[in-house]
Amino acid sequence: MSAKSGKLYHGTAWYPELWDEAVILHDIARMKEAGINVVRIGEFAWSTMEPSEGEINVSLFADIITRLHDEGIDTVMCTPTATPPIWLTHRHPERLHVDERGVLMGHGSRQHICTNNAAFRERAARITEAIASKLGRLPGLIGWQLDNEFKAHVAACHCENCLLLWQGWLEQCYGTIEALNEAWGAAIWSQQYERFDQVPHPGPTPFLHNSSMQTAHRLFSMAGIAQFADEQAAIIRRFSDAPITHNSSIAFHVDNERLFEHLDFASFDTYASAENYAAYLINCDLFRNYKPGRGYWLMETSPSYSGSLQSAAVPHPQGYVAAESVAAYALGAEAFCYWHWRQHRSGCEQPHGSVLSAWGQPTVGWMNVLEVEQARRALEPLLLASQPAKAEVALVYSDRAKTFMATEPLKGMNYRGLMTSYYARLLAMGIHRDVAPEGIDLQGRKMLLTPFLPYVSEAFIRKAITFVEQGGTWIIGPFTGGRTEEHTIPTDAALGKLEALGGVEACFSYPLDGSGAIGEAFGIQAPLGMWSTVFELRGASSVGTIIDGLTPGYSFLTEHRIGDGLLVMLGAMPTGEEGDAMLRAMFDHYASRAGATLRVDATSGTLVAPRVEADGRQLWAIVNMDGRGGTVTVPDGTVDAFTGELIAAGSLAVERYAYRVVRLPLVD
């Protein structure tokens, strides 16, 4: 959108349906003062649009879009299907969501409906069509958001309607009940089924359900919500050419790669704390890659702090929100938006941070918003004339892997936390990286990382091996390849085909935590942990050896040449401070060996986002994220991109939460 509009967006969520005319006029005036140039509306307003069934009136929102446009503010319009009105649910328990415990949700809050329910889908389609047909061509409407935060508060529905859909989905997947029983290994504990209509939801049982059933049920739910998004998008496209997104998150129970497949651009919400800035930045590096070549949107973040009736986060330090915005824009964002503009006077999120208070005065977040606008205006001409540099190092993030680990967390393994921690090391080392889904294009990459990926598909293996043969380095593990597509254990080898490709034989797979396992690699000794696999060599070379614990003498880190590249097997996770040092040494060694040169010498906590201008020159957007200030080493011939002044080669200082943009000399 920015390519067409010639702007970066600075936006907010707004709920004009909750306020009177005087407040609306006041809010628009203050938005202009703050530099807000896009507003998101309508996402929770179903009862306003359709107070009783069939009586749909969206004139209020048409008026708001027109007013905003007249004031130079664009609009993203939302479908309101996250908050069905009382007339849709009252005396209709069959339409409500049922959780994994069999508890029926009552009306209230949001996401209390079963999104697979046919009556809900029909009425959701009807309200979507009414909104799109009335508003879709209005000047100023520049985008659509479907619903709000799919599956943020709920996961798979366990209602009777979903049970029928689940059973039909299984029949479509497996064809025969015999094939399902075989794939799931259902003979264990006499869990075979005679017909598909006997397969239950994985609800309450005395112990645990079959792993294959649990993971399949999660994937079934993810497929259903993506189908719902596709239905809404298809309706909107009949009446509007504006691009469509959904505000998702890596925390929700969705398959983001599938969700965004048929949408036009990716967007996300995040409320990571300032001290956990890596959890913020991983979103930027990931959502950039769901729709390659198209900028993503940060659709929601707090101007100060998040909160609800039962929680309140620590307010962001002064300057941090501006640093967030610079990082987002520099890493490829077209928009940086807040939740929300005016504090709710009622409801469950009254304590949540906002730009204005419920009584219309600036909050503690107001100065943050002004700082963001100042940064946006300064950055806009430079960023619109450049593109984020494609990273040579790619880290694969998989929502399918997340479902596997939700089924089988073993010793407390949390996929999101593990991936963020792994990512944070690359970030701190100044290695420019793309975080990407399994469908990643490996063209131009030099190092591929696939940690915590229990199932690796045949298609992905073929793609990755071709990458290795052509000179790439693929680092596999830890906890990668040890499960089949059906979430069972391979019976040919512990890690299936990966073992032969890696030139190893997996001798033992077991939990190393607390076992006294110590590994040695790159001259560093460190404790080893997590559920791990240890190897004997079958053509590979050992890089890391276990020197203490239950399996001394076996390898936990190996490398094997295939064609012009390397396949590296990391079977166990180094832990503690020594483990962190070992992992960094591994990243440094293999990035250098792979020829990954897109990296910088910067102090930890200072981000460098490399971008490329039309003439091939690199721009570095440098921003301090940790509040301690930092330095970046720049080469001879570097100039300040704002002033054109020559910068001395060597260490360039960046103050607390400050940013610099520099232009590097053109390399022949």
UniProtKB/TrEMBL annotation:
Keywords in alphabetical order: Glycosidase, Hydrolase, Metal-binding, Zinc
Pfam families on file: Glyco_hydro_42 (PF02449), Glyco_hydro_42C (PF08533), Glyco_hydro_42M (PF08532)
Entry EC no(s): 3.2.1.23
Enzyme class: hydrolase
Catalyses which reaction(s): Hydrolysis of terminal non-reducing beta-D-galactose residues in beta-D-galactosides
Domain Beta-galactosidase trimerisation: 391-594
Highest rank taxon of the organism: Bacteria
Ribonucleoprotein keyword on record: no
Domain called Beta-galactosidase C-terminal: residue spans: 608-664
Glycoside hydrolase family 42 N-terminal domain sequence ranges: 14-376
SUPFAM superfamilies the record matches: (Trans)glycosidases, Class I glutamine amidotransferase-like
Family: Belongs to the glycosyl hydrolase 42 family.
The name this protein goes by in its record: Beta-galactosidase
Species per Swiss-Prot/TrEMBL record: Paenibacillus terricola
